[in-house]
Amino acid sequence: MKVLFLNGPNLNLLGQRQPEIYGTTTLADIEAATRTHAGDRAEVEFRQSNLEGELVNWIQEAAEEAAAVVLNAAGYTHTSVAIRDAITATTVPVIEIHLSNIHAREEFRHESLLASECAGQICGFGKQSYLLGLDAALSIKNT
Ligand code: CA2
């Protein structure tokens, strides 16, 4: 089965800026660790976009290509009705993930417009949030 990891705006900067918040690991490092963690349990595909509409398109198309989506919508988590509507409309389970604990940060990050439409939310575990996201996807599909 394929698990599609979708990454939102600015996550391409991981490891290059603000290491005090987001660490020194790059998105490519996280992708490699997720592939290793998956082993032969799942095919893993990573995408990143800074564009809201591109993320919406990928969520719309996901049902044709993947068994589950693991989504770090980054800043759009807190603002995007369009991404929320795409999650509501898709038949594929979507798992929301974040590197940081959004509930322990600025108040505007406490609200996720996406969480209620997702199978669940994982946040605060850094790179490990991606590995836990994969495990959650496998557990949804295999139980
Ligand atoms: O903790 C997360 O994974 C977030 O989704 C990251 C978003 C933030 O807006 C969310 O509230 C929580 C920010 C991603 C931007 O990442 C950067 C990495 C390095 C330098 C600048 C931004």
Polypeptide structure, described:
With 143 residues, the chain is an alpha/beta fold. Helix content is 38%, strand content 18%. The chain has a 5-stranded parallel sheet, with helices on both faces. Helix 2 runs parallel beside helix 5 and helix 3 runs parallel beside helix 4. The structure holds ligand CA2. The site of ligand CA2 has 16 residues, from loops.
Give, in order, the helices and strands. Answer: EHHEHEHEEH
Q: Give the low-confidence spans.
A: none
* Shape assignment: globular
Q: What is the terminal separation in angstroms?
A: 14 Å
The ligands bound in this entry are:
ligand CA2
Overall structural class, as computed from helix and strand content, comes to alpha/beta
Strand content: 15-25%
Helix content: 25-40%
Summed over residues and divided by their number, the pLDDT gives a mean of 96
Largest sheet: 5 strands, parallel
Number of helical runs?
5
Could you tell me the radius of gyration in angstroms?
14 Å
Order of strands in the sheet with most strands: 2-1-3-4-5
User: How many distinct beta strands?
Assistant: 5
